[in-house]
Amino acid sequence: MSLMVILICLIAERFLLDHQHLRQMRWLDRFSQWLAQQDSAAWMRQGIMRVVTLLLPPLLLAGIAQQLFANTIFGLLGVVFAGLVLLYTLGPDDPDNRIDAYTRAVEDGDDESIKEIAREIIGDEPPTSEPALSQAVAEGTLFQANQRIFAVLFWFLLLGPMGALLYRLSTRLPQLEYANRDLDFYLNAKQLVVILDWLPARVTAVCYAIAGSFEDALYGWRSFQGRRFDEFSDSNSGTLICTGGGAMRLTTLLDESNEALQDYSHLPQSAMALIWRSLVVFLVIIAVLTFTGIF
Q: Which of 7, 72, 93, 238 has the most beta carbons within 10 angstroms of its beta carbon?
């Protein structure tokens, strides 16, 4: 049943890309602001407790609904509820759309759009020159795909709708306005995301390796463990970027671009192609596990 829900949602999402604003979770911002205005005990305002307080109410509601709908109308309402929650938690920004927008900006020579889109993908100030810029966008896409797609599906498979909602809410917490005013809250929220990302990041990295060059992916993973560990803020981003970069043979693509026309805009497109192939691998693995009765 989970496989069917996932397939339907992945297809349905293609028709909902013009309605991304419906999945921005602005209500979480309003809830956090309301909570900050309440006269609560000091221990309730500590970072970790604030994280728990923000997550608990929506997760409890989702868990109750999940149980109530599970056996209603032969489970049909449960399937509908699961599909709606999964659709809500996927994304909200589509990596494919972002890469298309980045490619168009490069073709049009729109430096402002290039910088803005690259900043969104990388999550930081982008490099100012090539090939560092296109390489950073490609690597950022490999990392973002885990948080936008693979990790959501992973937690959905593990815990149902409540798992998908837990993951998406957790990734949203460090972006809240409240996080800008409370460093302790921000650090605890970021650490929660790192914990929730640990297993999905490794599963995604394996899918990258299977869908791309397995030998190069394995070399990339070993290089991260051996000499590139200090380059990354956490092991999840390092594993995804080094393994994914190896799987798409990023170094070879850079060399070929240097020898040709010094055009690097195809690097993010190559990363996106690897992501789609990896998603197929991921779905095949789920199908095998479903047919063997594990899911």
A: 238
Residue partners of 94: CB distance under 8 A and separation at least 6: 13, 17, 20, 148
Which contacts qualify for 13-16: CB closer than 8 Å, 24 or more apart? 13/87, 13/90, 13/91, 13/94, 16/87
- Sorted by sequence, the CB contacts under 8 Å of residue 15 that are 6+ apart come out as none
At 196-250, the pLDDT tens digits run: 999 999 999 999 999 999 999 999 998 888 777 777 878 899 999 999 999 998 8
Global pTM reads 0.90
By the 8 A CB rule, do 87 and 12 touch?
yes
Q: Which two tokens stand for residue 63?
A: 């868990």
What are the DSSP calls for 209-220, one per residue?
A: HHHS-HHHHHHH
**Domain ranges, residue 205:** 2-291
Residue 181: Cβ-neighbour burial (10 angstroms; 0-12, 13-18, 19+): exposed
DSSP letters spanning 15-69: T-GGGGGGGS-HHHHHHHHHHHHS---GGGGSHHHHHHHHHHHHHHHHHHHHHHH
Instruction: Give Dmax over CA atoms of the chain in angstroms.
Output: 64
C-alpha span between 190 and 121 (Å, rounded): 18
Give per-residue pLDDT as tens, 237-253: 999 999 999 999 887 77
The CA distance from 145 to 237, in Å, is 11
**First vs last C-alpha separation in the chain:** 8
34 in Cβ contact with 27 (< 8 Å): no
d(Cα 33, Cα 221) in Å, to the nearest integer? 41
CA distance 64 to 257: 54
CB-CB contact of 150 with 203 (8 Å): yes
Are 220 and 97 a contacting pair, CB within 8 Å? no
Q: How many CA atoms lie within 13 A of 75 on its CB side?
A: 4
